[in-house]
Amino acid sequence: MTMDSLSASLAIAGSGLSAQSQRIRVATENLANSESTGKTPGALPYTRKILSFDQELDAATGAELVIIGDVDADRSPYRIENIPGHPAADAQGNVKLPNVNVLVELADIREGTRSYEANLQVIKQVRHLETLTIDILKG
Fold it and tell me: In whole angstroms, what is the distance from residue 66 CA to residue 13 CA?
């Protein structure tokens, strides 16, 4: 592994850290709003956000970096429950609830956290290899 490939490894892992951090943030926001309804009758509740990953060429290292593409609204239907007396209930007492599945968000947070940790380990290993290389060159 040359210093150029070490630099590329650092750039790739760094971009992975950033992307997974965003992923965890979006999933956490979804989880926090999993019961956020509208404030007026028939109003729309919180809409789940989904993000996509994309890639970008890093000119300095020649590595393909992971970046966040778009953060879009999930188009899956809202849950509807009959809760008469709720401020967001319509004339029939139905309330639209967010299209957030708590288990899906928890799984996404867990997967994002593990990916974040894996990228962090790559950075630690690359730094260790760079230190070893410098020690060898010092003789």
Answer: 9
Task: Read off the pLDDT band of 104 (50, 70, 90).
Answer: very high
pLDDT band at 61 (very low <50, low <70, confident <90, very high): confident
Amino acid in position 37: T
What are the beta bridge partners of residue 65? 56
The string of pLDDT tens digits covering residues 118-128 is 999 999 999 99
How many whole angstroms separate alpha carbon 139 and alpha carbon 121?
27
CB 122, CB 13: distance < 8 Å: yes
Record the tokens describing residue 73, joined without a space. 């609204």
Per the CB < 8 A criterion, the answer to whether 49 and 74 are in contact is: yes
Copy the structure tokens of residue 52: 């996509």
Question: Is the CB of residue 6 less than 8 Å from the CB of residue 129?
Answer: yes
- Residue 96, by phi and psi: left (phi above 0), alpha (psi -120 to 50) or beta? beta
Overall average pLDDT of the 17-27 stretch: 97
pLDDT score, position 1: 46
Phi, psi angles (nearest 5°) of residue 79: -80, 145
